[in-house]
Design a protein that fits this description.
Strand content: 5-15%
Distance between the termini: 26 Å
Structural class: alpha+beta
Number of domains: 2
Strand order of the largest sheet: 1-5-6-4-2-3
Oligomer: single chain
Largest sheet: 6 strands, mixed
Radius of gyration: 19 Å
Number of helices: 10
CATH architecture of the largest domain: Roll
CATH class of the largest domain: Alpha Beta
Order of helices and strands: EHHEEHEEEHHEEEEHHHHH
Helix content: 40-55%
Length: 353
């Protein structure tokens, strides 16, 4: 792997928060502005820490354990990380439902990676999983900062508690998986692939915990996160990008599902949360074409691609797609899996020839 560059990655796209910040409702606009300001401060802190050479979590630690090593911390509505430790690995559930949900979500992600792909935590060597809850006040986001997970409680008007959907927990952890494998840069198509991989892992963990097949799954990211007043079902739809929400305050879901509708923008690091809809749909098409459990054959192909050592940090959709085809051929030969991968990318307009 090339130079290690941990990135600040959020579940809610900046364009959604920007829309909220420009609302005519002063309460809603204030919520959006505060979250944007908090995110900007964290990005700056992350950048300064990286330049200064601050050690990443797990850089010096005891030998890897056989199971997850989770620790949950309470920020108590402040922004200092990680906060007060409130639950350690193996301890019993407490009264804080947010803490319990995050603890369980970290465990479910660890279990999927280990039982399905034989990977011991995000780095393959038992990296401890650290999370902080109750971050700031009315904070409408969750993020991976290169070292740990952080969850806001939401504002109750637009977003509910960010620990509610297990796929949000897994999505943010998956940014750590990408960081320790392909290390995809967080800009343009490689950034959209980074976001898409997190959505894929998030959806797989949800399906795994619910025991759902690809056909039974809803393929929504963040279902249950939007408050009742919001006209929408989730943050994103992998099945039908662009249909997750259509709301007076948040606007319409801008995700494309085909390269013909690829969005060229200077915002959101070149549209990383927007154009991720294209590889998201490709994975959904692959998983439903193959049927059965998506974390098995479809997920295995994506995992093999991510960990194969061939993905460049600034990979394009086409480069990534070609590598998924190579991964399918290497594991399954010229069988249905290979044909399904080729068909999926062709359907979303990503050239692989």
């Amino acid at each position: 792997m090339a130079d290690f560059h941990p990135t600040f990655c959020t579940i809610v796209p900046p364009h959604v928060l920007d829309k909220l910040a420009r609302s005519g409702d002063e309460i809603l606009s204030g919520i959006g502005r505060r979250t944007l300001e908090a995110d900007a401060a964290q990005r700056t802190r992350r950048r300064l820490n990286t330049v200064a050479g601050v050690a990443l979590a797990g850089a010096e630690r005891a030998p890897a354990a056989d199971g997850p090593q989770r620790s949950i911390h309470d920020c108590e509505h402040r922004t200092r990380l990680p906060g007060r430790k409130v639950r350690a690995e193996g301890s019993q559930p407490g009264q804080d439902a947010t803490v319990n949900r995050v603890y369980a979500g970290l465990g479910a992600t660890f279990e999927l990676l280990l039982s399905t792909y034989g990977r011991n935590s995000l780095d393959g060597a038992g990296l401890p999983l650290v999370a902080s809850v109750h971050y700031d006040r009315d904070y409408g986001n969750a993020f991976w900062d290169g070292e740990q997970m952080v969850f806001g409680d939401g504002d109750g008007e637009i977003f509910l508690d960010f620990s509610i959907p297990v796929d949000v927990i897994a999505h943010e952890l998956a940014h750590g998986l990408t960081q320790y494998t392909a290390n995809l840069s967080y800009f343009s198509q490689s950034g959209a692939l980074n976001e898409s991989v997190s959505d894929v892992i998030g959806s797989l963990v949800k399906q795994y915990t619910l025991g759902q097949t690809a056909d039974e799954a809803d393929w929504l990211i963040g279902a249950g996160l939007l408050a009742p007043r919001v006209t929408g079902v989730a943050l994103r739809s992998m099945k039908e990008p662009g249909t997750a929400y259509d709301d007076d305050v948040l606007g319409k879901d801008p995700q494309p599902g085909h390269m013909d509708d690829y969005v060229r923008t200077g915002q959101d690091n070149g549209g990383v949360h927007i154009n991720s809809g294209i590889p998201n749909r490709a994975f959904h098409l692959l998983a439903t074409e193959l049927g059965g459990n998506a974390w098995e054959r479809a997920g295995q192909i994506w995992y093999d691609t991510l960990t194969g050592g061939e993905v460049r940090e600034d990979a394009s959709f086409t480069e990534f797609a070609k590598l998924t085809i190579a991964a399918a051929r290497a594991r399954y030969g010229d069988q249905a899996e290979l044909q399904a991968v080729q068909k999926a990318w062709d359907t979303v307009g990503v050239p692989t020839a």
